[in-house]
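We modelled the chain as a single entity of 246 amino acids. Its sequence is:
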Amino acid sequence: MFYFDFVQNSCAKPTKGELVMNTISPRKRVPGKCALVLGLGTLLSIMTAPAFAGCGLDNLAKPSAQRLTPGQEGATLIRADYRPGFTQYTRADYDPSASSSGIVGLWSFSMISDGVAPNPVPAGATVDFGTVQWHVDGTELMVSGGRAPSTGDVCMGVWRQIHPFTYKLKHLALAWVSTDTPPSMGGPGPSPAQFLGPAIIREVVTLDKSRDRYQGKFTLDQYNADQSKLLTHVSGTVIGTRVTVD
């Protein structure tokens, strides 16, 4: 094994030719009072350091009472990882599926129109309301209270987390028209009911600090049966309130 010998005799100024490459056996002691030594402890501390470290990141999934505040402890490194779909590094122990901190669970919701053209629904009017389940596997199930069962009041979607406590949803509804469909929803229609077409609902919502309420924006695009024509575009604010067993 080859080493670079920087040994200086009694710390004297090196003369020309003293910097040489020598072959040293494992048993040979390096002489000199000023030898530069890299300790094993230093090597181990470098080798065992975390692969990723964030500065000032806290675990948002913890209750606020469990979080550290400035001055409680000295400066520390926090292990953080980059996760696809997130817009920043998150703590390695962050669990987005925890029901006490994430979107997973049962919610009651309401959609309020913003009245922005080409939205035909007046600002402040309720577009829809009902219950919605966000599942840990990234799927979602909604039951509409604003639509009659004969017009398709149960629909499904998929979601993913795009930021701590912020979620993106794409929801697919299959709309029908029948004799009891109100004019605002394309009715009244024929009997038996006839398929109107798919409606795509998109949402981006964020949980508040209580984790029991979310709010965000939504759009609803209703198409005809073969999706060749956009029939209606609605936009506005969606609000959700967590339903618990208490």
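As a brief sanity check on the tokenised model: The two ends are 71 Å apart (CA to CA). Residues 105-242 form a domain with the Lipocalin fold (CATH 2.40.128.120).
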